[in-house]
């Protein structure tokens, strides 16, 4: 059942859906999208990365800012799929600040934190509006985080992320690329369902370029790794298929049948349909961007 009339544009709809009213749709989405975080957790040697940061920070507690924390799927995946929890026994303590404009997200993410992550401050604000006095942090990360930024605010958000990073610190950005499913689907949705009205999602390339414009390449090495994979959903798992796609558009007022019947979007969905196997395959392309101080941190 539709939970609300969609607000006019992407940023406002994103904020409205990061709420208790959006929980059902969020859970259908993560039935598939949990994979995004497991693959990120498997892509780097995080214990090694944290050991390096701790050495540079002079030992003791590490500070971390989770930008656009959402419901905390990234820290959850790290706790489940890496050896980071064992580092807590080795004395690692990460003071974990959460940032998100949605209070729902701050509460959800706080609930998943376990050692070595220890909840510290919560910042109910957008990245671009984070108070200049907050930081610097030893680690700043933004994972599948900044799709709904207003395009005019991308530079301000990138600048503020860099300012919030300690000189010896590490920044990790992971986000869908221009051609991956999240952005391609939403472009087709806006074109086919909304008559071309509305703001497209921001790509990883756009945020990376903005980080470079803000001077990331002067102080840090910028390493970009591309992850390519598929989200596969059975055709008869209608609830997950529809819920996933609705969440991809932050719009639960458009049914699966309406999406299939729409121009442009219908063609996109047809192209994702493997009728022989009875599944839809959504081709993801995600860049994992790691900024490390120029004198290097093993990662
Ligand atoms: C897909 S979630 C992020 C997922 C999260 N990193 C995780 O580990 O589960 C996107 C989040 O971005 C937040 N958001 C939207 N616009 C934002 C902005 N301008 N600055 C910071 N966060 C924003 C939303 O409220 C939402 O909670």
TrEMBL record:
Residues 65-171 form the Methyltransferase type domain. It holds the Pfam family Methyltransf_12. This is Unannotated protein. It comes from freshwater metagenome.
